[in-house]
Design brief:
heterodimer; A: MetI-like fold; 77% helix; B: alpha+beta; D-Maltodextrin-Binding Protein, domain 2; 2 domains; 5-stranded mixed β-sheet
């Protein structure tokens, strides 16, 4: 292998210098915890214990996979991920198309949509707890809209509604963020392409489906992978809703179950096994999604 | 009359506190020690404890104390994370069912007798009402000193009773059946939306407050030999059914998703007429709503029993014990126990200003305790009560109870199915210990 020399070698060395802090940060705060969790998942380590942990092989994995509670949390995660993924992807795409088509007020519209993403998840959940109170805005607004006075939709006090409520909060919080990504993707489409289509007599719908959508495919793939990963990592809303009295089972997503296993049951070995399983599922889904999108590109 | 006596005693505490003198601990002379206390938020308690710390550090200039408070709902996780990371506090307190796992795992140091000013562990036990130190005695050593031991009774808003056509002095509920029927009379709704509650439970304290309901009917959380869990199907099912019928899918009288009953009670805004709380709620009520406190439109009555109860079981009492970490140096442990002992030597001021009861014989027999409004109601219930369940898995068992009861109350799960799942999960939790 030929060593880079001269100017090229110097640039490569500087490249490593610039990348080093990021690599160090990533190794310390991402790779080390992953490796640590992987090792811990094969032990009976307790979160608070003065005894040395023992190697237990696959015992934690077997117990987790045969546990009714684990499969309930897998179900809750899947319901949440699908429930939030579809509206997040469609709404952010819709809002982005609307913003791009605006002649003015683009910035204020983007800011308005993006502002919930700036809030911490805890603050967002607390705001929505007030909205979902039986006497709160959610019931009042829907009752006024549908002419159904006195109906309590039990936003937090019903198994199905609690799941819907967490999805509503999540979509509200993150739709602006993904809209901005789509706006950026749409901004990269050369004006000439749209102008040519306009001259050919294509209407706005035709231009959107035949030009915009195919040309923002890389952005769509990126956004959909990001949404999926983020949905599977959801935690704060469910945690705070359970603290506020919502039933645990229906919204005990995987991250919340991991948290409870580690912090409440103090079984950090088992919690690590659950984390590794979640990590594997997220990795697999992201890979499948990327592969499917590449397959689509090849077919074009 | 009792309230006037209480006010006079409060003045006496202030006078006594001005002349307080903390002990200089010989072991700490000429040494520098930094100790950290993590405790739950309580404005009234923080004020007096900061003063005790000032007095203690003046008498022991080498000692620096970091006093940190956390919300009650978060402190357990914070203490757990602290010890897990090898960076726990020197002094901490948690409810005993959350604190016990730390003791069981060896993270708690026994009381340093010399530093704390005791002759022996028997000497410590002799100062407290029988049985009150039981959860923190292991192998003849004492591992914690009680900051408070609390039982709950039923607070009643007399105005709201009268507004519903009830006579509070006669109609206050003695049984759980009456709690429900009185609540039905007081409740106000706009369609399905509950605007005013008669009573609501104190969620999610199921070990403290709901297990006694089961025990009244002859059921048990764990059998005496520790081999069976959730004993007595009929008792458990009856309590599950009560929660189902009380909740939004039944008579719609309350739910865990509403504002905490005791907070709404203190505000006296026509939101709730009855709530469960401890003696400490009285100074909190006084601070939150002095006009309501002075109006005498509230009273406290014993914890309700079932009409067909097999035995009288008041609300369980639970304790917060100040504990000292075994992971710190001997000197830090000595300084910590000396400080804890000094702080806790002000039992009457804790009672007068914070409303928390240290179960020392001296305090329980004192004029200060007897002068506290409704202390007799709490004392009578306490005499018949037992301590809340504690063990290496008590935190998990409390969470399992919450899940089971709220699945019946909110998610429409059949009581028998919820009981079956609870029993299985509890057995697993105990097997993991």
């Amino acid at each position: 292998m030929k060593r880079a020399s001269g100017m090229e070698g110097k640039r490569a060395r500087w490249g490593w210098v610039f990348v080093a802090p990021g690599l160090l940060f990533f190794s310390l705060f991402s790779w080390y915890p992953i490796v640590n969790a992987f090792v811990t998942s094969f032990t009976n380590r307790k979160l608070i214990s003065l005894k040395a942990p023992k190697f237990v092989g696959l015992q934690n994995y077997v117990r987790v996979l045969s546990s009714e509670d684990f499969w309930n949390s897998a179900r809750a995660t899947a319901v949440f991920a699908v429930g939030a993924f579809v509206p997040l992807l469609l709404l952010s795409l819709l809002f982005a198309a609307l913003i791009v088509s605006l002649r003015g007020w683009k910035r204020p519209a983007q800011m308005a949509l993006y502002s919930p993403a700036v809030l911490s998840s805890v603050v967002a959940a607390l705001i929505w707890l007030v909205v979902f109170d039986p006497r709160g805005l959610a019931n009042q607004a829907l009752n006024a809209l549908f002419g159904t006075p006195g109906i309590d939709r039990r936003w937090l006090a019903d198994a199905t509604m609690a799941q819907i409520s967490t999805i509503v909060v999540y979509v509200w919080k993150y739709v602006g963020y993904f809209t901005i990504l789509f706006v950026t993707g749409m901004g990269k489409i050369p004006d000439a392409v749209n102008e040519a289509a306009l001259i050919d007599g294509a209407g706005p719908f035709r231009r959107f489906f035949s030009i915009t959508l195919p040309l923002i495919r890389p952005t769509t793939v990126l956004v959909s992978v990001m949404i999926l990963i983020q949905c599977m990592k959801t935690f704060s809303t469910q945690y705070l809703f359970v603290q506020a009295g919502a039933p645990t089972g229906p919204i005990e997503v995987m991250t919340l179950a991991i948290y409870n296993t580690a912090m409440r049951d103090l079984a950090i070995g088992r919690a690590s096994a659950m984390s590794m399983l979640l990590f594997a599922v997220m990795l697999l889904l992201s890979w499948l999604q990327l592969r499917a999108s590449r397959g689509g590109e090849d077919a074009l | 009359m009792k309230r006037i006596a209480f006010a006079l005693l409060a003045l006496a505490f202030v006078a006594a506190s001005l002349s307080a003198q903390a002990p200089a601990v010989p072991e700490l002379k000429g040494k520098t020690v930094e100790i950290t206390i993590w405790t739950h938020e309580d404005v009234n308690r923080t004020a007096i404890e900061k003063r005790y710390i000032d007095e203690f550090t003046k008498a022991n200039p080498g000692v620096k104390v970091n006093y940190v408070t956390y919300p009650s709902a978060k402190i357990k996780d914070i203490v757990t994370a602290g010890f897990a990371a090898g960076n726990g506090p020197d002094i901490f307190n948690l409810e005993i069912f959350d604190a016990y796992p730390f003791l069981a795992e060896g993270f708690v140091a026994p009381v340093d007798l010399k530093a704390a000013g005791y002759k022996s562990y028997k000497d410590i036990e002799s100062k407290y009402v029988a049985g009150m130190l039981a959860p923190v005695v292991e192998g003849g050593k004492v591992y914690g000193l009680p900051l408070e031991l609390t039982n709950w009774a039923l607070f009643i808003n007399k105005k709201m009773f009268r507004a519903a056509g009830l006579d509070p002095e006669k109609d206050w509920p003695k049984t759980w059946e009456e709690v429900r029927s009185v609540s039905e009379k007081i409740a106000k709704r706009d369609g399905q939306i509950l605007l005013r509650r008669g009573f609501d439970f104190r969620y999610p304290y199921y070990l403290t407050s709901v297990v006694p309901m089961v025990e009244q009917l002859g059921g048990e959380l764990v059998s005496k030999d520790g081999k069976k869990v959730a004993v007595g199907d009929a008792a458990w099912l009856k309590v599950f059914e009560y929660f189902r019928d009380f909740g939004p899918n039944g008579s719609n009288l309350g739910s865990p998703t509403y504002t905490a009953a005791r907070k709404a009670f203190d505000l006296d805004k026509d939101e709730i007429a009855m709530s469960l709380s401890g003696l400490y709620q009285i100074p909190r009520l006084q601070a939150a709503n002095p006009a309501f406190y002075d109006s005498k439109e509230w009273m406290v009555v014993p914890f309700p029993q079932w009409k067909d109860a097999k035995k009288v079981v008041p609300n369980n009492y639970y304790g917060h014990y100040y504990m000292v970490s075994s992971q710190e140096s001997k000197l830090q442990q000595q300084a910590s126990w000396a400080l804890v002992s000094y702080m806790l030597s002000h039992g009457e001021e804790y009672l007068g200003k914070v409303g928390i009861v240290q179960p020392t014989k001296a305090l329980m027999e004192s004029a200060a305790f007897k002068a506290m409004p409704y202390s007799d109601v709490f004392a009578k219930d306490l005499a018949k009560a037992h301590i809340v369940y504690y063990g290496a898995s008590s935190t998990k068992i409390d969470a399992l109870l919450k899940e089971a009861f709220e699945s019946v109350m909110l998610s429409g799960v059949e009581p028998a199915k919820a009981l079956e799942k609870l029993r299985k999960s509890m057995a697993e939790a105990l097997a993991d210990e």
